[in-house]
Amino acid sequence: MLRSPEGAKKVSLGFAIGFGLEMLVIYTASLVYLIFYPIVRLAKGSFPAAVIGNIIGKISFLPVFLFPFAYALGKMIYPFHVKKIHHKPFTISDLFSSHIFTMLKSLLQSEVYVLIGMTIIGIVFGVISYFVVHYLYEKNRKLRLKKRKKQVREPLVQI
Questions:
Q1: 81, CA 20 to 30 Å: which among 8, 51, 101, 146?
Q2: Confidence class for position 47, pLDDT limits 50, 70, 90
Q3: What are the start-end ranges of the H helices in 27-99?
């Protein structure tokens, strides 16, 4: 990722989008992947960097650890009572039946506080990761240029 020819801004933007959207994956029943590619392309970010950011967000387990904080944040921002729909446990056969949209609606509606909180956390982590990756990319680029100039200055000695 650090040797990508696309430039620091594209790589940083792609990574930030991938990392930020990872915060929403669990709580949207993975529906966020339907808009993952279009969002990266519309923002003109690097898609490979977005995938790497998504994987790093996935293996960090941050969405799982931040669940209570996201719930409290969502409840603070959206203080209205949300009517929870009681539903029976879903089975695999429900996925292939005509009730899939009812199932997804009940899943998303019951976790609206967490969804609001994780959206805000994802935006914050995305902005932070943008600047971190941009700094690391530029630092690596300058280090490579310095090494390249050092090699050009030193003549090759053959014995």
A1: 101
A2: very high
A3: 33-42, 47-59, 62-65, 67-77, 92-95
With tokens 């609206």, the residue in question is 112
Which residues, in sequence order, are CB contacts of 71 under 8 Å at separation 6+?
Answer: 113, 114, 117
pTM > 0.85: yes or no:
no
Q: Supply the mean pLDDT for the chain.
A: 83
Burial of 90 (0-12, 13-18, 19+ CB in 10 A): middle
- How far is Cα 138 from Cα 150, in angstroms, rounded to an integer? 18
d(CA 49, CA 1) in angstroms, rounded, equals 6
Domain ranges of the chain: 8-153
Contact 51, 36 (CB under 8 A): no
Sign of the alpha-carbon torsion through 32, 111, 116, 26: negative
C-alpha 78/C-alpha 144 separation (Å) is 48
Question: Can you tell me the distance from the alpha carbon of 117 to that of 65, in angstroms, rounded to the nearest whole number?
Answer: 13
Helices (H) and strands (E) counted in the chain, each on its own, are 8, 0
Please name the amino acid found at residue 130: Y
Q: What is the dihedral of CA 119, 123, 124, 126, to 10 degrees?
A: 130
